[in-house]
Amino acid sequence: GIGIMNIMLVSVTERTREIGLRKAIGARRDDVLSQFLLESILLCLAGGVIGVILGIAGVHFVASLMGVVPVVSVPGVIIAFAFAALVGTFFGFYPAYMASKLEPMEALRTE
Question: How confident is the model at residue 107 (pLDDT cuts 50, 70, 90)?
């Protein structure tokens, strides 16, 4: 979660001019907030997909070594994705909020 927040803060810093330009041509605070929040959630969901795939592969590998039948529950996978989305929302909110607060003229002046 902290890593996601740091990545998103760096993204906001690197894209300050882009944010300023979008706001200068009419993007609202909510538009910018939604964009960065969605990016954070998608980043976490991508990590969730990789985690579920590696987890299932690990379960199958360990189960084959132990001679047992692996069981992967669909509710467990759904909970994993929901948790990933929740982490993305929670830790992505602060960077998204900071991006939405940028003033267009100040943002366009930065390099």
Answer: confident
